[in-house]
Amino acid sequence: MEYRSGSQIREDFLRFFEGKAHRRVHSSSLVPANDPTLLFTNAGMNQFKDVFLGAEKRDYSRAASSQKCVRAGGKHNDLENVGFTRRHHTFFEMLGNFSFGDYFKKDAIAYAWELLTSAAWFAIDKEKLYVTIFEGDEKVPRDEEAYQFWLEVGVPAERIFELGAKDNFWAMGDTGPCGPCSEIYYDLGLAASESGADVPFGEDDQRYMEIWNLVFMQFERASDGTLTPLPKPSIDTGMGLERVSCVLQGVMSNYDTDLFIPLIKRAAELTLKPTSENPDMGHPVGDEKGAASLRIIADHARAATFLIADGVQPANEGRGYVLRKILRRGIRHGRLLGQEQPFMFEMVKAVRDEMKVAYPELVEHAERVSKVVLAEEEQFARVIEKAMNELDRTLDAIKQLPSVLDRWNKTPESAPDYKEAEAAFWVTFELVHRTVNKNEARPKSRHGMFPGRTAFFFFETYGLPIDFMEDAARDAGIELDRAEFEKAKIEEQERARASWKGGSQKTASPVYRELAKTEFEGYSALRVDGARVIALVKDGVGVHVLSPGEEGEVVLDATSFYADSGGQVGDVGWLYAADHTTVLAEVRGANKPVQGVFAHKVIAKVAIAVGDEVDTVVNGEVRAATMRNHTGTHLLHAALREVLGKHVKQAGSLVNRDRLRFDFSHFTGVAEEELREIETIVNAQVLKNTPVETLVDVPIDVAVNDYGAMALFGEKYGDKVRVVRIGEFSTELCGGTHTLATGEIGVIKLVGESSVASGVRRLEAISGTGALDEFRRGFEVSRVVPGGAAGLRDRLASDEEEIKKLRRELDGLRLKAAQAATADAAAGAIEVKGVKVLAKRLDGVDKAQMRELVDQLRGKLGSGVVVLGAATAEGKVALIVGVTKDLTGKVQAGKIVGLLAALVGGKGGGRPDLAEAGGSDVSQLDAALGKAGEVVGGMLG
Question: Strand ranges (DSSP E) for 785-828?
């Protein structure tokens, strides 16, 4: 068996199947196109899903690909295992060959065996290979065909094993295509054994590694569970590149292949300091935890790099949340190795260097991706600091909870301080449990233990590792409830699975699935005569007739209406009767519920029936306005890259008749002078009246590599694409409608620039008559205000500055009034158990002024506690507590303000020396301030 690099294995796989008449298909984006049921692309078949469902046709029936995949959330979540096992990854590549109703089991098995064992290809020792087949059940018999075909290629009967539906029956979902599958395993040998014992196949998952799964789609499952043989059975296979590299490179772990070794070495260089025992900064000597951390960093760097390159941004929900978790887990493990400075952004460059041959787009994206990662590292550093403060407060509250509860239990309800004792308990309880459940009986409250659910709160919110929290709790003499933590984690995973149903759901109503494709003729004509109604849909259900006044969808065999796609909204217009004069329906838009099927959203004017002949007539004025804006986005994209840099990449768009909206990757706001330059460049291209050239059925390789066309994020491309080229200025893959030349746009006017998300900006612009209207408004302003728009801006700026000045003066007067009111306040401080306590109400001052007053009053007291309260203009309560430094070991501002806030219907916290809170009950403010002395006294014991 000859050593092969990971890159060579990938290429050999694709080349082998090209030799078997398969089309080499590019990996699709990690963000599934037009499939909201998937969190990330997690298998090679994802991009062919509609083909298998019969909703999309391609001009080939055999395909092979190396697909980028991520499994780190939702149904497929390997995140917590990554780095601690030999084979779990967040990012991996799935090698696959596919047959769409062409060859079936016999050929699939023969191809797999030839590639793996032939001396001309992978030359794996046949004695090391085992295969499995479906053993059968009450609905599907034993896969006798697969068994016989494996025997025919030379697999001995004693190395063919039968397994049940859990392992060897695959389904796309509860309904749809399904069928038995056959897996191929490799024996890594006794050295890889989990137990060290020489056990037979099936009893040691570490020694016997699955490397390839062949899925035989031969049934259609109905909603009642009935299985019907498919007229054209299909093949879907998947082989992990990392696993087969492990085999062909003769190592025990995927992480010991050349796909990971350079990344692990770079991770060590960035996180470890050289020692005499470890001068090359490789794996930490004798430290398996350290080695696992390096593996995690390497894996997570791959996942984060590819996800961000494919348009995902760190966020607090959805895909962005999973990306953030991946990044923060990698950063945490760098910190465990001692690296507290940003380093993951440097790993992006290492991933680029290792993967750029297979994925050349990484070269273009690396700078942008690196900046996103650096920004996330810097933000996480701030989060960690806050998390540590919160963790310390929580551990302290856990220790305080028994005494606070004891005080409440021992205080009679008739006592003056009963409510304060009750409030003190619930404030502390909330801090410990991160929830207030007042239905929980006091005796059931758990004390002296760090609740697992609270630990999970820190894990999810701040990314603190459980081992870290256990150590911190142990140092404080507190036990962490690990079992409750694991239960909370499992519950969260189940919620995630419920939110993302996996790649198993049909993405459109079944009524559309069996329909023939609509012939789109709208690129060359606004009108198509004699189109036939092939389906009518009302409220998701097929009907035979739409009556006058009814809303529904009309599916035709041909149309001139563009359907929502690529950010461009669908056309509007009318459907005419066969007499060419009677309006049957008003068309308010169009979409594609499944690939190739155009559904026209209509309001019927007269009855429309299935089988009717109609004329499709697009509103030409609206189409022209939309085309101007769409061509404008292409010009804008190119101008942005020219002015801001090649890192700019489209992250979304919306094009309609009124305006264009263009989202793009960039890290700072676009300056006024840059906006003017972009606008100038775009309009210079408009004035040149450059022809807009459309090239159809271009092989995607030619479009990207020869023409330099940019593919747009989130779009789904086939092997033949449509290229829109505007001279030498812009070349993009695009299926939208465009002007014939740039001069038709008239003029483009930028009207807005804003932030959409971290690292993503948005430009808005108008063109044609919309721009003309904008210029007219500017002209009208110039007639009213001297100097026109510039004069109006100057006047507004002057007025704003005057308003700011008046506000500053008013704030100053309020502060002086408050200072006068508190000039002698220190003399009114009371003494509680040897500590001065000053409580004062000061309405009409803001929080910044309250903080300034607290500092002044603490200075006047010298040593003591200052409590200030105010009723705000919004009818709320503001509280602030300051404690002089010499007393923070005895009383803490955060605890005081929390107890007082509970009395005014609020909560709050902060540092031991300064803390703030809010509340909703102004009527209780004076009473709460009156309790300040008691609260401080209670803390002093």
Answer: none
- Which residues are part of a known binding site? 630, 634, 734, 738
**Could you tell me if 218 and 224 are in contact, meaning their C-beta atoms sit under 8 angstroms apart?**
no
Q: What is the pLDDT of residues 233-281, one digit of tens each?
A: 999 999 999 999 999 999 999 999 999 999 999 999 999 865 444 555 5
The H or E element spanning position 821 is helix 788-821
Predicted confidence band of residue 441 (pLDDT cuts 50, 70, 90)? very low
- Do 13 and 114 sit in the same domain of this protein? yes
pLDDT at residue 765 is higher than 80: yes
Residue 831, classed as helix, strand or coil, is strand
610: domain CATH number?
2.40.30.130
Mean pLDDT of the chain: 86
Looking at the DSSP bridge assignments, the partners of residue 725 are 693, 731
For residues 582 and 650, membership in a common domain is answered with: no
271 is a domain residue? no
**Residue whose structure tokens are 């004891």:** 406
Could you tell me if residue 270 is inside a domain?
no
Handedness of CA 58, 61, 64, 69 (dihedral sign): positive
Q: Give the chain's domain count.
A: 6
Pick the last residue of a domain from 470, 499, 528: 499
Q: Are residues 310 and 439 in the same domain?
A: yes
Mean pLDDT of 344-355: 96
Instruction: Give yes or no: residues 486 and 549 share one domain.
Output: no
pLDDT band at 712 (very low <50, low <70, confident <90, very high): low
Report the C-alpha gap between 874 and 29 in whole angstroms: 49
pLDDT of 508 strictly over 70: no
Q: Is residue 751 domain-shared with residue 651, that is, in the same domain?
A: yes
| pLDDT band with cut points at 50, 70 and 90 for residue 12 | very high
Strands, DSSP E only, in 357-484?
449-450, 479-480
CATH number, domain containing residue 935: 3.10.310.40
Q: DSSP characters for 891-938?
A: --HHHHHHHHHHHTT-EEEE-SSEEEEEES-GGGHHHHHHTHHHHHHH
Q: Write out pLDDT tens, residues 401-419.
A: 888 888 888 888 888 888 8
> Residue positions in the annotated binding site for Zn(2+)?
630, 634, 734, 738
Looking at the fold, whether 793 and 744 belong to one and the same domain comes out as no
Is residue 659 situated within a structural domain?
yes
Give kind and range of the element (H or E) at residue 309.
helix 288-309
d(CA 317, CA 294): 27
Residue that is last in its domain, among 464, 499, 534: 499
With beta carbons less than 8 A apart as the criterion, state whether 884 and 914 touch: no
Same-domain pairing of 837 and 767: no
> In the block, which residue shows the tokens 């004025």?
621
User: How many Cα atoms sit within 13 Å of 91 on the Cβ side?
Assistant: 26
Q: What is the CATH number of the domain that holds 693?
A: 3.30.980.10
- Given a contact cutoff of 8 angstroms between Cβ atoms, the answer to whether 116 and 95 are in contact is no
Least confident range from 312-316, 445-449, 762-766, 931-935: namely: 445-449
Query: Which of these, 74, 46, 662, lies nearest to 319 by C-alpha position?
Result: 74
Report which listed range, 93-107, 217-231, 465-479, is most confident: 93-107
Please report where in the chains the tokens 């009907």 appear, as a residue. Answer: 543
Closest CA to 334 of 408, 269, 277, 396: 269
Q: What is the pLDDT of residues 62-73, one digit of tens each?
A: 999 999 999 876
Outline where 447-523 has alpha helix (H): 452-462, 466-475, 482-499
pLDDT band at 568 (very low <50, low <70, confident <90, very high): very high
Predicted confidence band at 717 (pLDDT cuts at 50, 70, 90)? low
Considering the domain architecture, whether residues 607 and 632 belong to the same structural domain is answered as no
> What is the span of the domain harbouring residue 58?
6-259
Query: What is the C-alpha separation between 63 and 23, in angstroms, rounded?
Result: 4
**668 assigned to some structural domain:** yes
Q: Nearest Cα to 161, choosing from 200, 194, 198, 191?
A: 200
